[in-house]
Amino acid sequence: MKLHFSLLTEDAGKADRQNFSCGxxxxxxxxxxxxxxDMARGFATVVLARAMDEPAGILGYYAFSAASIPIVSLPxxxxxxxxxxxxxxxxxxxxxxxxxxxxxxxxxxxxLFDALKRACASEIAWAIFMVDAKNERAAMxxxxxxxxxxxxxxxxxxxxxxxxxxxxxA
Length: 170
What we know:
It is globular and about 50 Å long. It is α+β, with helices and mostly antiparallel strands. The protein has six helices and seven strands, in the order E-H-H-E-E-H-E-H-E-H-E-E-H. The protein has a single domain (3-168), classed as Gcn5-related N-acetyltransferase (GNAT) (Aminopeptidase). Helix content is 34%, strand content 28%. Helix 4 (107-121) crosses helix 6. Strands 1-2-3-4-5-7-6 form a seven-stranded mixed sheet, sandwiched between helices.
């Protein structure tokens, strides 16, 4: 199956969004009710995955935005290589969801890699790519790609921009 990743737009049918289900009520509700508003207000960029031969159906999505984290939340090994600013510019992947029928078929990995590629292609400066894992299974998924857990928030994980670039060019 060939996939197409595109930004959520006004013409992305409400019915398409309402039919999406990943099995996690909060992730489904976000796409159904909040994602369009977040895009319109500039609070998140929402990207949809669709099949090229059936563009009406949504197979998965992710939402990311600019953020910052206190430099003291990073290990000294990482923060010691950074300028001494109080906060570090960050890309936050707040949500990533795959349709129930396609889970465990690598679509989550493709969504993550699309987010990493878009972040690296952006002209916005950032040093850390951070994810909020919704559960332990999701956290373990991100760890497979080299993400590390924050000591103070084990459901939030991170990698550096350099690591991100290495991942997408591997």
